[in-house]
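Morning!

This is the sequence you dropped in the shared folder:
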Amino acid sequence: MAISKIPSAGFQDNVKFRNLIINGSMDIAQRGTSKASIGFEYGTVDRFQTVQGSLGAFTQSQSTDVPTGQGFAKSLKMDCTTADASPSSGDELYIRQQIEGQNLQYLSKGTSSAKSLTVSFWVKSNKTGTYIVELFDHDNSRHINKSYTISSASAWEKKTITYDGDTTGAFNNDNGSSLSLSFMLGAGSNFTSGTLQTSWGTSTSANRQVGQVNLADSTSNEWYVTGVQLEAGTTASDFEFLPYDVNFERCLRYFQKTNYDFLGFGFATANSQWLYHNVFYNTLMRATPTASSDSTAVTGTSNTLGLSPKTMVCNAYTQSSGSNNDIYAAGASAILTFNAEL
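The structure's back. Tokens below.
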């Protein structure tokens, strides 16, 4: 009977987790399922950031409109609510996901062995025409931009785009933003007046959205996307569906929220006391997060819940007062959010 070999420590498993994009199926939306007048922010679907530079107004939502029979349950939708048919020169709008450099080292960028990348996705819009998808290297200020065409109005279409490997400029091996994938949706002349950067080159704003249609030119315009996959190589493989819990935990590395209920008791040795409590994150976060609280109910003399986030835990504290040697109580009930997005 033949004995299978155990892969060596250097074995690269290109089957599991080949997709560099997190939540490309648009299933996770911790912040909410709809955001009106979305700005420069993470609004709905986890890990997808909107860059809105005054190009009309849009409502973003997590939609159940998906391509039939492909296994997807959710998509990201952009719905124009205020038209801007004549964009100012600096206007722009795009959806992007940023990727940590330490997850990109196997691409060998900046060497003669730099790997090509292929992005595949499903898209739908009533606004037909040319759209741009960009890869941007944040470590070296380089980019490459390629187009796709929506041919049939209001019909789901699958698109595949391949980008050559870049032999210039290595990605930093850290937890910072090294590469972003951006879906362009419209822009003014500052971003459309050059020549589309179809090969890797130094960042030039005028070359980023050349030929891009303006999704903001009518309030009837909508744009949907799902099944976003970015992988090494020159061909697109089938979308990598992950179990919901795995997908969710990957999103928690960048953003998480929790219901916080705590009431503690202490022994006063002075007239004002602080009661401290550790709140542990649901998973290891990318970096020390920004912490916030809705402070719906705080027990004690302080009307705010203090938060001091660390790398793996957040220190929460409330204040109470009383006479020396008194037993005192302090606590809080709140929704806490921790943000370590790129």
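Headline: The helical segments are 244-252.

More detail when I'm at my desk.
O.
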